[in-house]
Please model this.
Amino acid sequence: QYGDNLRYFVSLLRDPDSAHYSPDTRVLIITPPPIGDKMIERITAQGAQPQARNSVTGTYADLAISVARELGIPHVDLYSAINDAAKTAAAQDPHGTLEGYDQYLVEGIHLREKGNKLLYDLIIQAIAANWPEMAV
Model:
């Protein structure tokens, strides 16, 4: 259903029969960020199971990339970028308590300043690569 929804949103802008048709609008698909499982577990009520899991989010990220490729739309893989950065951060943490996500995510889900900066940089790179006339 997630993939179908992405396709539908893109079709609203690309289909000439759509009331929202906008042939000049640039579309960039951004994957969801990863989930810091240990961070989520820490804030979830004792005994309750967290509603979000990084492995599930990875499936959504893969699907977003697949739909972007299928439709010929550029994408930003925020999921992999933060996962890779978090692994590097975790390797520098001798205790390994937060998997490195604490530098990029507030409570395991939402981006903190460093995560937003990474997303911004990735978007600027995607714009420069795909629409150089718009690059700053």
Notes: The radius of gyration is 17 Å. The mean pLDDT is 90. The first strand starts at residue 29 and ends at 30. Residues 54-71 form the longest helix (18 residues).
